[in-house]
UniProtKB/TrEMBL annotation, chain A:
Family matches, as InterPro entries: BPD_transp_1_N, MetI-like, MetI-like_sf
Residues that span the membrane, as ranges: 115-139, 151-178, 198-215, 257-277, 308-328
All residue ranges annotated as the ABC transmembrane type-1 domain in the record: 112-321
Source organism: Litorivita pollutaquae
Lineage: Bacteria, Pseudomonadati, Pseudomonadota, Alphaproteobacteria, Rhodobacterales
Biological process according to GO: transmembrane transport
Listed name of the protein: ABC transporter substrate-binding protein
TrEMBL record, chain B:
Keyword Transcription found: no
Chain ranges passing through the membrane: 41-62, 103-129, 141-159, 171-193, 224-245, 282-300
Lineage: Bacteria, Pseudomonadati, Pseudomonadota, Alphaproteobacteria, Rhodobacterales
Identification of the protein by name: Peptide ABC transporter
Residue ranges of every copy of the ABC transmembrane type-1 domain listed in the record: 101-300
Family named by the database record: Belongs to the binding-protein-dependent transport system permease family.
Entries under Pfam families matching the protein: BPD_transp_1 (PF00528), OppC_N (PF12911)
From TrEMBL, chain C:
Enzyme class label: translocase
Annotated organism of origin: Litorivita pollutaquae
Gene Ontology biological process terms in this record: peptide transport; transmembrane transport
GO CC, one annotated term: plasma membrane
Reaction(s) catalysed by this chain's protein: glutathione(out) + ATP + H2O = glutathione(in) + ADP + phosphate + H(+)
Annotated protein name in UniProt: Glutathione import ATP-binding protein GsiA
Entry-linked SUPFAM superfamilies: P-loop containing nucleoside triphosphate hydrolases
Domain of life: Bacteria
Enzyme Commission code: 7.4.2.10
Record's signal peptide: none
Amino acid sequence: MLTFTIRRLVLAIPTLLFISLVIFLLLELAPGDPMAQVPLTVPPEVKERMREALGLGEPIYIRFGNWLWQFFVIEPMHLIDVMFNTSLAEGQQRVISWQTRSPVMDIVAQRMPQTLWVVGLSYVVGVLIALPIGIYSAYKQYSWFDQIGTFISMVGFSVPTFFTGVLLIVVFSVQLGWFPSIYDTTLVVEDWASFKLQIRQMVMPVFVLALYNAAQISRFMRASMLDNLGQDYVRTARAKGLGERVVVLSHVLRNSMIPVVTVIALGVPQVFGGAIITEQVFKVNGLGALLINAIQANDLPMVQTLTFIFAVLIVVFNLIADVLYGVLDPRIRYD
Amino acid sequence: MTETGPGTPEAIAALTDALPSSPPRSQWWDVWAQFRSHKGAMAGAMVFLIILLAVIFGPWLWHIDPGYIDIRARNQGPSLAHPFGTDQLGRDTMARMFAGGRITMAVGVTAMLLALFLGSFIGILAGYFRALDGLLMRLTDLFLALPLLPLMLVMVLLFRDPLSAAFGPEMGIFILMVSAIGITSWMPTARIVRSDVLALKEREFILAARSSGTTNSKMISRHILPNVMSPIMVSATLGIANAIITESALSFLGLGFPPDFPTWGRLLFDATDYLQQYPERVIWPGVAISVTVLTVNYIGDGLRDALDPRIRGR
Amino acid sequence: MLDHTIADIRNLRVEFQTKDGPVVGVEDVSFTVNAGETVCIVGESGSGKSVSSLALMRLIEYGGGTIAGGEMHFHPQDGADIDLAQTEQSLMRTIRGNQIGMIFQEPMTALNPVFTVERQLTEGLRLHKGMTKKQAQARALELLRQVRIPEPERRLAQYPHELSGGMRQRVVIAMALACAPRLLIADEPTTALDVTIQAEILALMDRLKRETGTAVMFITHDMAVVAQMADRVVVMFRGNKVEEGTVEEIFERPQHNYTKALLAAVPKLGEMRGKPLPEPMRLLGQEDQEIKPIVGTDAPLLTVKGLTTRFAVKGGFFRRTVANVHAAEDVSFTLMKGRTLSLVGESGCGKSTVGRSILRLVEPLSGSVQVGDRDIIGLDSGDLRRARQDMQMIFQDPFASLNPQMNLADQVAEPMRNFDTHRGAELQARVEMLFDRVELPRSFMRRYPHELSGGQRQRVAIARALALNPKLIIADEAVSALDVSVQAQVVNLMMELQADLGLSYLFISHDMAVVERVSHDVGVMYLGRIVEIGPRAAVFENPQHPYTKALMKAVPIADPRKRKSEKDLNFKPIPSPIHPMDYAPEPSHYREVSAGHMVLTTDSGY
Amino acid sequence: ERGSDGEVKIIYWQAPSIMTPYLSGGTKDLEAASLVLEPLARYNETGAMVPWLVDVVPTVENGGVSEDLTSITWKLKEGLKWSDGTDVTSEDVKFTWEYCTAEGGGCAQSEKFLDVTDVETPDAQTVVVKFGVAKPFPYGPFVGAQSAILQKAQFKDCMGPKMPECTDANFGPIGTGPFVVTDFRPNDVVQLEANPHYRDPAKPAFAKVTLKGGGDATSAGRSVLETGEYDYAWNLQLAPEVLANMEAAGKGKIVSGFGTLVERIMVNMTDPSASLGDERGTAAHPHPFLSDINVRKALSMAIDRALLTEIGYGDAGRATCNVLPAPEIYASTANDACLVQDIAGANKLLEDAGWIKGGDGVRVKDGVRLSMLFQSSTNAVRQDFQALIKQWWSEIGVETELRNIDGSVFFGGDPGSPDTFQKFWADVEMYANNFDGTDPEAYMANWACDQAPRPETQWQGNNMPRFCSEEYEALIAQMAGTGDINKRAELAKAMNDMLMQAYVIIPLVDRGRVSAHSNSLGGVVLNTWDSELWNAADWHRMK
Ligand SMILES: Nc1ncnc2c1ncn2[C@@H]1O[C@H](COP(=O)(O)OP(=O)(O)OP(=O)(O)O)[C@@H](O)[C@H]1O
Ligand SMILES: Nc1ncnc2c1ncn2[C@@H]1O[C@H](COP(=O)(O)OP(=O)(O)OP(=O)(O)O)[C@@H](O)[C@H]1O
Ligand SMILES: [Mg+2]
Ligand SMILES: [Mg+2]
């Protein structure tokens, strides 16, 4: 298993390099300009000079090479500096965002907490509600619970979050005044009161995203449970006199989780980058908002770095999925 | 050894297999029969058909031009003249729903089919030909990692003009949209299909077909493809919803249809601003999208059951 | 022997709710099982054997069935009487696994793949007997010893897929026995296993019955097993009990026509003694049958020399090959036109691998395969495809070797379409002819595999193999999975085709009685090598190699008066065919015993 | 009293990404920076210049500007302190000029320092700006939010190519303004606290400012007007009825003011058809039908500007017939006839000019159909406008295809993209533009011939219609040499009228700025000539 993991990781490096090159070329080709948000009153010559100052004049391979060097050498050195108070990366040019002229990784680090709190938590919540719903719907296939579950999950999947989010805001913020409509990213949880505030501001975005995630995962869970409930070993378990709870929640569930775990793991990277609309609606300003902002401002280093991080997540979670697969299913052994 | 007495009809019957009582039927008849017995699927198919007929024939029965602006009739609620009311420019919502439905359904279905085709094609190739597996799966990773928006911008940049020149502006954009959505949403299908094909390849009937001289292309079309229909069906269900939503997001970003082209996603997006004043405006497109996706889901469920001969036989 | 009734089933009726209305699974069945007694239930496939036993466990409700009538009295000890048909599921839970144990039909899938053997074994013990983890573990170990699993301590920590089929089946048996049930239901526990393992398991169950007084309800359609095991026999037919009696009564004085037909269809080892050539079986109800020995020719069709096939075991950081499975090792034989060569041997000894290597469905490492005057090994992929026109294969599992999504006419027509030998109406006509030939109604052409019984499916597979008029058919366990009655039909059909068309068969099987019936020559395989080969009569009547002798001994005989006792059986676990990369096996050397009868002198590992 | 009113929360739906005006000229960044950094003088809500870090605005009259218009002398207020407690000196002012004009730096405001040859610092309070040419309007440098003063001590190591590397300084500049940055999260939120060294000891009233960014205008408005979570929301470009509905919730007020921002349609005088290859959209090929002034005029006549204003902007807009609508003295009245829609007149005009309606209702002349592509950036109001205008034009026999393009591409100016507003590969396009401050000279010079974007200029330039007239060139030259304000006004009006009467620009709406503040926020004075937050020091909580 370990060698399998290492081997896959080693193989991932060329893949990732290639992906980053393709992303880079794609971004190069995409129209748009980092100066697009500068008002029209600023003359074109000035914009041209600003562009040059960003290093846009260099040939493309030099810029890609620079990015690679900065991302893979300087950024890790900087990380070491921060952690151990060394000064390896002293004076070296880090990956700088064109929009904010500050190191991209610092901003990414800044956005992490809210992304994890809201988007990450919503995924966890989504999974936590999807599993019981999927399990029970399958166990009682075609019961009213199953029908309603199907209905809600399909509606949850088909109604875009730009609508559900606004609807929740109108109802719970404007009409009822229960929850804030704007997420405060500066809130520090240090006592009970601030914890309550944090919970209050998370409720709506987490709910919206969780609904969407739960909808998909519960469908997979249900299908997988259905597959396994008909298996022979379930009958064997019953023949041992085990109670239904043990049969379903221990024997069947463990087997059904095998494909679902893959689905869940592969969903994680998408969740990080894909919650753009919800983040916008509630102004959570997580990584998704950062990405869309950077794309709109044509902030190539930022977009490149973020998409590369997502690519790494995709590859890593692919791997995690495979490893989990192996852990859950003893028949699969990677060595 | 036991002495065996003279045979009786019953004894012989024990040695031949009992004929089933129902007469043999064609495959499609069987599929249809099974499909018909699935209540949800039938209801879904009916509703889907109604929606389809409505968006195809609706504009013939309801003559108002969806783009016609009657500025005096702005923001009206439902009335006889405008059964669904009007929007902020006084355009008739019902006419816009019909017109939008045509585009949404066309885009949703076509993009979904394209994604399915690509996903199945790549999934099957990757699963079937070992040599292609690594390459194609890395390609899938690549597409998963590609940021959608820049990709779309590039596609618009490169292809809008040639396509418009070749097919006219509307068809050109339609092709562009459909291929953009298709190209960016085939990856999950490919993964699922691939793993199914990998399992299928170990089955003995594939070996049997090979031993009777079946060529690779025939192998895929006769043996592999029909047996991976079930995951493809699930992808279809989720794909159509995905296509509808992506289309609305793209249109809104200005990467899609001309702004005066209504689509359901766009109508919903535009109406969201007026959620408080005119809540009925979000209801029409919202319900239309949800109902369409729901019906496709039920149809998919029914088809999946119906296409599986083992379930069909029960 | 205690003469105390454990289970008393009266007028059991089980129905299934399906979309086309209720279907009767069991119509009217009554029988009793006494303590310390083995009752065998036999009958054709689909006659309701499994359903009856599931009804007794009240597991039938989970499969969509209902007990529509009848009583099922269970007497765990003297005086106690529970009508299982009426009991609450909560009470059933204390009976299932505790007082009634069940061994399921399919040993391969009856175990949960993701839990260790220990976990699955101790679950019931801890539940019913309230044992602690430690106690349960000790008991599990004891059970594994009882069922004679080698290295029981290690097995506890293993997962089902790490065990061979025979071991898995023994784990299932241990599970059923864990709480020392009063009644043990065994549903075809050995059908899927080869003779040696089957013999072991039968011996084990017999011993347990004798030692603990457990009542055994043994379901099977293999009459040889019945003869081995049964005290009493219940014969079922289409949901009804048609006959009941002691094992001697049933075998010697069958009353019902079905029972008679069934017994007639059973091939018995030794029947062919003295007849050097194979001949079809005489079947009940087919009086006009002409029984003629099949002679064949002396012209070689298939010559295999030094065939070696290995599978790489990959591992390490770069997925390099670290070891090899020596599946076929220096295999040589010759098959003549119009004759049948059988390969027999234990599961996993490489029979299928040899068959597949000949067709190059797996690539052999070395050796030569000559079909007619064509060297198969040297062909490129295009020529190979064309060469396959002459040699077809019938696969081990009729369920698996047909595409579930394709109708039967298309499946039979497929080889002809592939080689474009026939077209349009001509093709249609030939498909019809093939259906007639294998005695399938033409109306079946539009059907799908799942709509057929196993025997019918196998006939489709045969029709498909015949479609191209091949010279050679490799029949890999073509009849092993079939019901005896169906099996007899298929065997006869194959021999008939051989007589008519001059086909050659490479017949792969572990069923010695069938092999005796059909073959001209027999090769016995062990651990990838042919240990003994020669004319069938010579090998069967004068086995030389120790493995061949053990194998012959293990075959159960369908005669209750010729039971084998456990001490006759003497098995060794098969050594692993996996060897490191640098392992160089010795070439095979043979000693000629009589004309064409060769015995391996090289060390075979036995 | 300073700091007594607690926290004020401001929401900008475009989040600030940097805190200095010199690295990003985006409005959001300028305005956020204006809480901290201040110029020597700035414009008030009427567009008049007011002294800020000086006591008087220098003029020729008071001797601050030299007679030959080549130098201007500013005198800093006494006792000005940076927020770190050090003194503000003329060296800082001079440094600001050096900083922005240093070699290799991409200073966004370098235009402000055009023609500055030297900045002299005779003493710590006095700054003399020298120009290489006579400057009739010498208030470019150090005036307005774009040209705020930086602290030399903080920025001296951040010159030229090192400008972007000074993240700490760029995110937390030391300034003279009422607030100091405590936490800056780019594109998310800025937190500030009262400047302890602010020159007025009683101000600011608020101890803390939170400037949140992100989302969209609707939700920003909602958070001030409906839920009351925020105190001030910037630039609420929303449909008037949506805004009215939000205001009805009673939690806050909408404020609006007018500047020079005009929503306009640009008419392409060159032929954008793809078949021309490299010469597409260049002066080499005049437009097949838009080069006919009758057609351009008819297009303008068919538009009901009042209705557009009502639908798109309500009280925050006024219909206009000028591309230069303000300040008052520059506003022409010569073209006001366009305020009334005249479809019949437009039809007649086209008919007379020989454009005859074909069977499909589209006018044709000599085989040329009046069929146009109308592009604009993506924005709900603009798309409504496009739809309306399309309908009106169809009534005069002009067929229109609409296209909307994402703002970052449309305004992005990427020469590789076919969709930029400069390339203008369409027949007409709509967007809004304005000019900085109150002097229109540079703005009116946009329509000089050599400002036309073309391949040689990498498609840069401001003359989108590719308008070219010798007469107009002459007026530009004349204005550059005129110092008298009234004379300048006349010239500007003449230029405006020339453009209007040629119908190469069809102005639609003079767009005001709409913002909203909560009922409890006092002291808000909406200023469209400078940063909206220009007087944040005066903001206070109403009791
Ligand atoms: N879940 C079910 N639904 C409907 N019919 C069923 C179901 N299970 C079994 N049957 C039917 O009940 C009958 C008896 O089946 P059963 O499994 O008992 O046969 P069997 O005697 O065990 O055969 P085999 O030897 O093949 O195992 C068959 O006709 C079968 O089709
Ligand atoms: N594709 C494969 N990869 C690796 N090992 C294999 C493969 N196929 C077969 N083997 C191994 O080769 C050996 C011989 O297998 P084979 O299938 O030929 O046995 P068999 O005699 O046909 O057994 P059975 O009676 O169970 O069908 C076994 O140890 C098996 O595990
Ligand atoms: Mg059975
Ligand atoms: Mg085999």
